[in-house]
Design a protein that fits this description.
Radius of gyration of chain B: 22 Å
Order of helices and strands of chain A: EHEHEHE
Largest sheet of chain A: 4 strands, parallel
Oligomer: heterodimer
CATH class of the largest domain in chain B: Alpha Beta
Distance between the termini of chain A: 20 Å
Helix content of chain B: 25-40%
Strand order of the largest sheet of chain B: 3-2-4-5
Shape of chain B: elongated
Number of strands of chain A: 4
Largest interface: A-B, 17 and 16 residues
Strand content of chain A: 5-15%
Radius of gyration of chain A: 14 Å
CATH superfamily of the largest domain in chain B: Response regulator
Number of domains of chain A: 1
Distance between the termini of chain B: 27 Å
Number of helices of chain B: 8
Helix content of chain A: 25-40%
Chain lengths: 119, 226
């Protein structure tokens, strides 16, 4: 399809979004990512039954932690799409990048850490 | 097991914001099982605190460790060599662990990172509930294995009281939550066991001096002492 999406996104592959733990999202932000989005399968379509639903709860939990330490919770988000929805992925990537651009860089600045977005 | 709930991050920040180097010390015992104070929770809390201080431009170093247990000296001793580097410790152990650490390292401020809640069980993933009040004189043999001290809101030895309705404690209405009547549970269980005659005799008086009424308790067993 040769779809284009913003180049500042770094994709971290996991077998299922159920593998994404709270600490993974926290570390991404702590290490300098301006935002992180979790791209899980469509709700009800999890190959492992409930992985994406667990990820959704964890994302909400991380948002609460970020709020309590004064960081915009919107920097972490959960999206649901299937493997066949390439154009939607590109659209989400653009949408998230735009949202993070509006928020600006995170106040977390660590020397020697590049600011990236992880998916 | 001893169950605990994480304290709000804002409260922990208040304890340590004026320190320069802090150790977050988890406990891999009971509080790890109820997902309040094990290694995973240490990592998440430490990460959140580091981010908070970084963005506030405060120089507070936050390190992590998680001990096998904090209620035993040999495990607390594991941080003997490094605790001198810190100006304070946030312990994610239960109240006993926090205090034992404070006793061992009496020159260091030790802060609690969790609210210790009760002795209970894991009913389901993410659902923990109280079963024991450590009253010091177990009556479970007479009550069908259901504790009237922990499960009855009034800790009655001869229940139920007049407040229960349809098997629910009157607190269910007051606090708008589902509290089963402990004595209703005991009745149903004794009925199943064919031991309803238990209700014909009032329970013998209970020695509350072995509970909290007798002050802080200790167990000394000469047979296992060194």
């Amino acid at each position: 399809m040769r779809l284009s999406y913003p180049t500042n996104i770094r994709i971290v592959k996991v077998p299922c979004t159920g593998r994404v733990a709270i600490i993974h999202l926290m570390k991404a932000i702590e290490k300098g990512a301006d935002g992180v989005f979790v791209a899980g399968c469509l709700e009800g379509d999890c190959h492992y039954q409930a992985g994406n639903l667990r990820a959704k709860k964890r994302v909400v939990h991380v948002q609460e932690i970020l709020k309590s330490i004064g960081i915009e919770p919107e920097r972490v988000a959960m999206y649901n799409l299937s493997a066949g929805m390439g154009p939607r992925f590109a659209e989400i990537a653009r949408e998230m990048t735009e949202k993070i651009r509006q928020l600006g860089p995170t106040p977390i600045k660590l020397q020697g850490v590049r600011k990236e977005m992880a998916a | 097991m001893i169950m605990a709930k994480p304290k709000p991050i804002e409260e922990i920040i208040r304890y340590i914001e004026n320190l320069d180097k802090v150790l977050i010390a988890g406990c891999n015992g009971c509080v790890a099982v109820c997902e309040a104070g094990g290694l995973k929770e240490v990592e998440v809390l430490a990460s959140a605190l580091r981010m908070y201080f970084l963005q506030k431009g405060k120089k507070v170093e936050v390190d992590e460790v998680s001990l096998t247990r904090q209620c035993d000296k040999e495990y607390l001793e594991e941080i003997k060599d490094r605790i001198g580097n810190y100006s304070g410790v946030v312990s994610l152990a239960c109240g006993a662990g926090v205090q034992f650490m404070a006793e061992m390292y009496d020159e260091k401020p030790i802060f609690p990172g969790v609210n210790t809640s009760f002795i209970g069980v894991t009913e389901d993933q993410g659902k923990w509930s109280e079963r024991c009040q450590a009253c010091g004189e177990c009556v479970l043999a007479e009550t069908g294995g259901i504790c009237p001290i922990a499960r009855c809101s009034k800790r009655m030895l001869n229940g139920p009281c007049g407040g229960s309705e349809k098997g629910k404690c009157e607190l269910s209405v007051v606090f708008n939550k589902d509290v089963p009547c402990g004595w209703h549970l005991i009745y149903e269980r004794l009925k199943k066991l064919g031991q309803l005659e238990r209700f014909a005799q009032p329970a013998a008086e209970k020695d509350w001096t072995v509970s909290r009424d007798g002050g802080p308790r200790e167990i000394i067993r000469e047979d296992v002492r060194p």
